[in-house]
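Figure 6 in text form: structure in, sequence out.
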């Protein structure tokens, strides 16, 4: 249903932290022109944690309107309250999104049974395609393969974003669930390997700044062309690392600012990228062939 390079889109903001609609429209056109296969709106990279409910729903609807059916839109609708996750997922459905992406409930650390019941409740309440999202490094809860296998039996749970960074974990889920749900990379550094192992794509931070290359790498990896995928991915490897020198989305928002695509706006408790990391991110962008603001080059 969904495949390839799916950008975990930043939510551009002005310097006072308000949402920058003009920059959002610019980013959407950038991604469509550069071959991005789907847009994920208001996920972790989109600062979902600091958008209020109204803003969250408004950004989803705005992205859907701007995309205008040209590529799929997947809405981040996860929450650590099941009732809130249901409400956000309904907003996504009503706003016209093609699917929702639901991170495991964070902070309250549910059991595996609690995770199963949470996702089942959202799937039963909102009739739209839903993608699980496991990222224990941020949520402090790890959804184990046995739980994923149980959830794969629910018809509108169509995939999982596997962001543990473990290829062994990804291979196990693909082996056990690959005929019932799609498995997507959620860690750019290991995404190529996951797709070569049978994954259907990646939900990518790097795609914010290198959409064409991530699309080309993903297409090659998904068709099993390891040589081409590795050749495209090699110049991106430093970028995969640099965009996590501080908590996501701090580095990627600075990178987009350096490219002249957005302002530096970000919401507390996140802050702008520390100056000590500017050169590392700038160097990684240049290694990937990405021009900075004021430079004449072709991405």
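Output sequence:
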């Amino acid at each position: 249903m969904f495949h390839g390079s799916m950008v975990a889109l930043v939510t551009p903001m002005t310097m006072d932290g308000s949402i920058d609609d003009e920059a959002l429209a610019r980013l959407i056109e950038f991604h469509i022109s550069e071959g991005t296969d789907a847009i994920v709106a208001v996920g972790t990279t989109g600062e979902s944690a600091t958008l209020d409910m109204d803003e969250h729903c408004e950004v989803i609807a705005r992205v859907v309107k701007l995309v205008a059916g040209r590529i799929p839109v997947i809405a981040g609708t996860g929450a650590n309250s099941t009732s809130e996750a249901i409400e956000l997922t309904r907003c996504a459905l009503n706003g016209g999104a093609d699917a929702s992406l639901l991170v495991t409930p964070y902070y309250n650390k549910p059991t595996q049974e609690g995770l199963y019941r949470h996702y089942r409740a959202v799937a039963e309440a909102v009739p739209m395609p839903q993608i699980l999202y496991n990222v224990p490094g941020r949520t402090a809860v790890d959804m184990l393969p046995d739980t994923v296998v149980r959830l794969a039996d629910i018809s509108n749970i169509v995939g999982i974003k596997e962001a543990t960074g473990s290829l062994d974990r990804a291979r196990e889920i693909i082996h056990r669930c690959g005929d019932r749900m799609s498995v997507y990379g959620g860690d750019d550094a290991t995404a190529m390997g996951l797709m070569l192992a049978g994954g259907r794509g990646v939900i990518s931070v790097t795609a914010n700044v290198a959409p064409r290359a991530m699309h080309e790498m993903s297409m090659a990896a998904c068709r099993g062309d390891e040589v081409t995928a590795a050749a495209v991915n090699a110049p991106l490897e430093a970028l995969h690392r640099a965009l996590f020198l501080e908590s996501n989305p701090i580095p990627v928002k600075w990178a987009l600012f350096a490219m002249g695509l957005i302002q530096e706006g970000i919401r507390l408790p996140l802050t702008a990228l520390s100056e000590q990391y500017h050169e590392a991110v700038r160097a990684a962008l240049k290694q990937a062939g990405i021009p900075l603001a004021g430079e004449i080059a072709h991405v």
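Caption detail: The longest helix spans residues 53-67.
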